[in-house]
Amino acid sequence: MAEHNQRQGMALLRELLDDAVAGRGRIAVVTGAIATGKSHLLYGLTEQAFDHGALPLVATGSRAERDLPLGVLSQLVHNTPMMEQHRAVTLGLLQEGARAELAGDTLDHLDVQIVDALCTILLELSERCPLLIAVDDAHHADRASQLCLTYLARRIKYAKIMLVFAAPDHAAHQRSLLHSDLLRQPHCRPVRLAHLTAEAVLRRVAERAGPEAAGRFGAACHELSGGNRLLVDALVEDFQAGGGPGERYAEAVLTCLHGTDPDLLLTARGLAVLGEPDGVARLLGHGPAAVAQALQALNRAGLLAGGRFRHEGARAAVLAALDATDRTGLHRRAAELTHDEGAPVAVVAEHLLLAGCADDPWALSVLEDAAGQALRDGGVEAAIEYLKLAWQGCGDERRRARIATKLVRAAWRINPSTPAGHLAELTAALHKGHLGGGDAVVLAKALLWHGHVADAKDVLHHLRELGGLDREGLAELAVARAWLRGACPSFLAHLPEAGQEESNSAAHSLGVSRRIESANALVRALTEAPRPETTAVAERVLRGSRLDEMSMDTVESALLTLTYSGRPDRAAPWCDAFVEEAASRQAPSRQARLSAIRAEIALRTGDLAAAARDARRALEIIPPGSWGVAVGGPLGALLLAGAAMSRHEECLPYVTQPVPEAMLETRFGLLYLHGKARYTLTAGQAEQALRDLRLCGELMGLWGLDAPEFIPWRVDAAEALVRLGDHEQARLLLEEQLRRSDRRSRRVHGMAMRVLAATGESRHRVMLLRRSAELLQTGGDRYELARTLFDLIEAYHTIGEYRRAGMLTRRARSLAVECSADGLSQALSPDGEHDGDASGVQPILSDAERRVAALAADGYSNRDISAKLYITVSTVEQHLTRVYRKLNVTRRSDLPARLVGEQS
């Protein structure tokens, strides 16, 4: 059957109408897919009927009136102009025919006399005036009207009558009496309307939005509409408003569906639920043949392509229009079907999620399996939703506790504070005996993270009483033992004693072995001087690790092992790769933890700006209040970087940030104490810094985590003692640090020698500082190297070696700028000028000395300065003594006025 566009179809119908007016009766059956414009064509023809000398009689079939006897024929007769007596006769015939049906007569055998009489009236009328009889939606016409119209069609071959019937081209109407009888008539012409071609769509878009718009999105309009005029027009509006399919497109899709047969609408709904044509018949409980025909009709309508919606927006619109009860019912049925057919667990779980129920045991298993798969693939949020539904639907307390543990682990990846609400439930489940040993270990670590020390100890004590742990419990216990040794050593005493059964169980699993191996490597890095074999283990672990469900602690331990073993250069590329992986897996908690590690790495290479940036990013991704005891990591790194960059005001909010008291029972507390001490030391509060450093050192010694590359607290404590004038105690600390660090910790060794130079005589300083510079050059810490070079410039200046001092100036300033060490870079004047000194070198003042000197130059007394900077009067006097010596002045009034401007 040839297809016609609107213009061709109208031309053909007008030609047929002219034939009918001339006395050659014609029949036309207009068909087409949804929204091909059948009704518009029909009514366009009726409007032109008078121009062709014909009287139009119009009727419309309706699903609601299919059982109304002779309803369509009644519409035609009521619209026919006739004499009153003829009208009375006609109405009587219609009433008699209706009574015949109500009396139980078979419609196919309606009284022929009634049919003939009714048709005769129309034939006689056509002798006076040609008739155009048009019936829209003829497939909904009642059977009695169909019988009459087919009877009439067989008798108009030489009458001035044109019969036009419009109906959709899907199969439902093609079996009707009207359709089959009409097409057999020799004077009948089928007119099948087609959707717009690609070229026609471009023309239509150009007409509505201009040629430029047709070039931009005309092709997309055709692809998303299949040429359906209604969809094309809607898409043009959406593309103009928002650049893609939107609200208008969704409305047009629903208009197309709600204007067609309910079977097509129901099929579209089933397809929207499943997303695939396979299984729609089983979902709806319909015959496969009927559903296949409906899908074909929807394809022809332009709504589908290959049995699937052309755009996800169309599918979403159909789903959204469903009644909530119908939607959940369909998804529940879809979950059962897909599960029975062995579909992937993610598909079944998604239907369960949309149905909002998981009452059956198989549903819980599906949701748990789907959550595990989603976590492996990086779909953390989906995994959380699956586990939430499983948790809500589980009636077994033991299984519910296990699901809650998985939920805690998954939610931890997004925000560690999210699963805190489940901790009380899990604790209660533990006491009831519903929580396994492995899950109890996870609970203890979560409680520790949130600072619930007493509860964590209680869980660990309960774990000791459980006895007879299964394989998973023994493995988790072995991992926890290694992890606690490096993170929370004081809690080791609360774990059950290690037995042979635990060791054997752990050895059976490669994943568990890697976790233990990584944690033990970190312990060695925290307790011993750097060893090549330790870094080799860390790199081997990293090569075999991905950020799957269980490996974050493994990756974290391996990265820190490299960092605390003096190889931050090797840790950096690994950490960057894992940060990127965490982002791709939508795991913000892991991004934050890795960013905090990246900040520590950057500090040890002297990249202060990167360290501050990474630490801030960690605290932005996870707010400080959600970090628990681990907040000491990013806070400590940010304070260290801020102090080195002389950004004291910017860091002040972080200094005053409340931290959990339990943090000081963890490794993270040591990092915080170190950062806070460096901050207060550079702010001129040496006594406060010394107290924090001594506490840090005391805890490190108590826990045995006193490796030189972890936290060189003795170096900073010695610097605080130097500022307080206690050179002897400073030397003792530095000598011990040098013994501990030996040559394998070049960075720390170089740092110690720099401070040691400040405790001795001027004539020995140059030698010590030059050695310090050599060590730091190979140690890779550019900031510490810059500090040594600045001290060396001052040492040269003190002994009158101005030329050598001048030679170092440019390199020192370049390093300071490269590290973003503002306090250092400002210590040398940009033009190399120096007040009254031919060396061209600006004597170096520390940050604390510069603040004291600026206030003194501005007229403040020593006591005023003491109160303003929160330091003792004795400290003020010591600072001023060093300032006078460095600037070669003897009294307060000789201090350069520029110091005041720099301070402000």
Question: How would you describe this structure to a colleague?
Answer:
It is a single chain. The protein is mostly helical and 904 residues long. Helix 28 runs antiparallel to helix 29. The relative contact order is 0.04.
Summarize the structure.
The chain is 67% helix and 4% strand. It is mainly α and 904 residues long.
Considering the chains and any ligands shown, give keywords for the structure:
904 residues, mainly alpha, 6-stranded parallel sheet, two-stranded antiparallel sheet, 8 strands, 67% helix, elongated, nucleotide-binding, LuxR family transcriptional regulator
Q: What is the fold's blueprint, element by element?
A:
Blueprint: E1 3-4, H1 6-21, E2 26-32, H2 38-48, E3 55-60, H3 71-78, H4 84-102, H5 112-128, E4 131-136, H6 143-153, E5 161-168, H7 177-184, E6 188-193, H8 198-209, H9 211-225, H10 229-242, H11 247-258, H12 262-274, H13 280-284, H14 288-300, E7 304-305, E8 308-309, H15 312-321, H16 324-340, H17 345-355, H18 361-376, H19 380-393, H20 397-414, H21 423-431, H22 437-449, H23 453-466, H24 471-487, H25 500-507, H26 510-527, H27 532-543, H28 552-564, H29 568-584, H30 588-605, H31 608-621, H32 632-644, H33 648-655, H34 667-682, H35 686-703, H36 713-723, H37 727-741, H38 746-759, H39 762-779, H40 782-798, H41 802-819, H42 822-825, H43 847-857, H44 862-869, H45 873-887, H46 898-903
Parallel strand pairs: 1-6, 2-5, 2-6, 3-4, 4-5
Antiparallel strand pairs: 7-8
